[in-house]
Design goal:
single chain, mainly alpha, 75 residues, 0% strand
Length: 75
């Protein structure tokens, strides 16, 4: 029983960075943030850096579309 408890604690601790990443992504989705912030473990940092790059490129692409179509951004 003790082994299962220790295993559950280790799993919860090990998955914390992914839970934080999910919360940060939800914050971006709801418009509360514009990029992933904070330090992540090196295994996850590569993913967060690439996601931030993807988000930035998507925003630039959307801005180019607006400029091309003459649509002004709403405030």
């Amino acid at each position: 029983m003790l082994f299962l408890l220790v295993e559950a604690i280790i799993m919860r601790w090990g998955l914390m960075p992914l839970n934080r990443l999910a919360r940060d992504l939800k914050s971006i989705e709801h418009g509360h943030s514009d990029r992933l912030q904070g330090e992540y473990p090196s295994e996850v940092q590569v993913v967060t850096d690439n996601l931030n790059l993807l988000i930035e490129n998507e925003r630039k692409q959307r801005e180019r579309y607006r400029n091309t179509l003459g649509i002004w951004p709403t405030v």
